[in-house]
Amino acid sequence: MADFQDKTLVCRDCGKDFVWTSGEQKFFSEKGFTNPPTRCPDDRKKNKEQRKSTRVMTTINCKKCGKQGEVPFLPKDPNDILCSDCFYEERAAQKGLADNTVTPPAPSEKPQSEPEETPADEPVNPE
Ligand SMILES: [Zn+2]
Ligand SMILES: [Zn+2]
User: Fold this and answer.
1) So what's the pLDDT on residue 2?
2) Is the N or C terminus of the chain more exposed, i.e. has fewer CB atoms within 10 Å?
3) What string of DSSP letters covers 78-118?
4) Region Disordered: start and end of each range (predicted)?
5) Which ligand is nearest to the CA of 66?
6) From ligand 1's centre to the CA of 19, what distance in Å?
7) pLDDT in the model for residue 125
């Protein structure tokens, strides 16, 4: 069995030194990984968490209306991108839906203080 010794590596993300412990090295070799980690444990954790959160918002300038907006992905060409409003418009147009019945993307959270319409509770007298 190979004898592992703690190694000091430099994190790719924060540039800080971190210790690649013998235990981790053993783990890596058992998993068949040949490359040492490129990030310190902190950044590895951050990276994992970032990947878990699916939404990566990118700020864009809409090529149609010029409005600044956000899209939940990384556009291939940042100059060839539509804001969500225009995107839905275009999509509706492509579908041949000439009318403006496209619903905008629903907000993730509804305001709690929305007044509810209470039906009138008066007895109805016929005649
Ligand atoms: Zn780091
Ligand atoms: Zn737009």
Assistant:
1) 59
2) C
3) TTS---HHHHHHHHHHHTT--SS-PPPPPPSS--TTPPP-P
4) 30-53, 96-127
5) 2
6) 11
7) 67
pLDDT at residue 49, as a whole number: 83
First to last CA, the chain: 97
Tell how far the Cα of 77 is from the centroid of ligand 2, in angstroms.
15
Hunting for tokens 């068949």 — which residue is that? 32
What was the pLDDT predicted at 122?
60
Q: b/e per residue, 55-77, with b = 16+ CB within 10 A?
A: eeeeebebeeeeeebebeeeeee
User: Any idea which residue has 């690649």 for tokens?
Assistant: 20
pLDDT of residue 50: 78
The helices-and-strands tally (H runs, E runs) of the chain is 3, 4
The number of angstroms, rounded, from the C-alpha of 106 to the middle of its chain's C-alpha atoms is 16
Q: Which two tokens stand for residue 69?
A: 């907006």
